[in-house]
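Reply to thread "Modeling small-molecule complexes from scratch"

Following up on the discussion above, here's a worked example others can learn from. I took a protein sequence and the SMILES for pyridoxal-5'-phosphate and predicted the complex. Inputs first:
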Amino acid sequence: MDISKFNQFVRDIYGTDKFIPLHEPRFLGNEKKYVLDTIESTFVSSVGAFVTDFEEKIQAFTGSKRAVATVNGTAALHVALLMAGVQREDIVITQALTFVATCNALSYIGAEPLFIDVSLKTLGLCPKAFDEYLEEHAFIDDLGVCRHKNSNKRISAVVPMHTFGHPVELDELLEVSEKWHLILVEDAAESLGSYYKNQHTGTLSLVSALSFNGNKVITTGGGGMVLCQEEALGAKTKHITTTAKIPHPYEFYHDENGFNYRMPNLNAALGCAQMENLTGFLEKKRHLARQYQEFFKDADTTFVVEPENCRSNYWLNAIICADKTHRDNVLEGTNKGQVMTRPIWTLMTKLPMYENALQDHLGNSKWLEERVVNIPSSVPLDA
Ligand SMILES: *Cc1c(COP(=O)(O)O)cnc(C)c1O
């Protein structure tokens, strides 16, 4: 890979000599108008029509039974795990190669992560490694509960993450989950606009989470969404994210311990405007990915493409370098040239909170950790 040629290639795409960030938001439509509307109407906070409107737009776009907006993606995932029945002391299976929010959410409940390797095809949870670990370390008790052999702890759920928007192998993962009586919860934070066999990611599990953080495909400043595939579960999710208040014109009555996780109307206004451009953003992101794919065709660097039978949003484009030294050279040369690139996350098992967590060999995770680099992925502007 010729680094100066790459830097120039990226500069030509974005048409600038200035610093090129990894992923910046685009506000090209009604963003100012809708946000101003919340200020002029005074409805900036927990009451206002944009929240419902935004929920309905996401619901329709993803084909969900119900979508519930939250303050951020971590909160959405926290609630999704609660709705899936995850409890204190449970073991929850996930990837070591993920953003820390996945683990934060299950830690809030008092559950403990078990890290399983990822697949090289998807960069997400590997169904084979998942089943192999359970075959060796788990059993199903007389009540049909999956338990860890050493600790006898309940293993209740599995949380695969669609890395950089590339869908995991959901059919296979769902099959293994069923075999071991586990509930699957998709961390779809990065995959708005990504499809697995024509179904929107996040809708193949009963409940899942999206994020609208500033660096995601679309943003609400900070925000998230719980996707529910059952009406009753959707109503329960709405209730618990809005302080579990029983609706009444003036009385305060709360029937359980709830959360103040509702998305403010101010943020939802931004989201409604962003949704009007989502399809256009996705087309441009896919076009950008094709340009990168062409650029890296013959290079010693592999461009990560969408898995088979999937349509990826290409949230963050990624390359796989030959080895760690090569990766370090790429990071150095691009960032020095004011073209922002970044290594993939440090494995969760290297963070102090999860150093002693349960884990399998993590072979592919370790291999990818040393080689993957994210390259500029903002929606290119029209020339
Ligand atoms: C962005 C993200 C989240 C949610 O993050 P928030 O900043 O809380 O919205 C969760 N999981 C993954 C993998 C993410 O990338």
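What I'd highlight from this example: The radius of gyration is 21 Å. Residues 72-74, 77, 98-99, 101-102, 161, 187, 189-190, 211, 213, 224 surround pyridoxal-5'-phosphate (CB under 6 Å). Questions welcome below.
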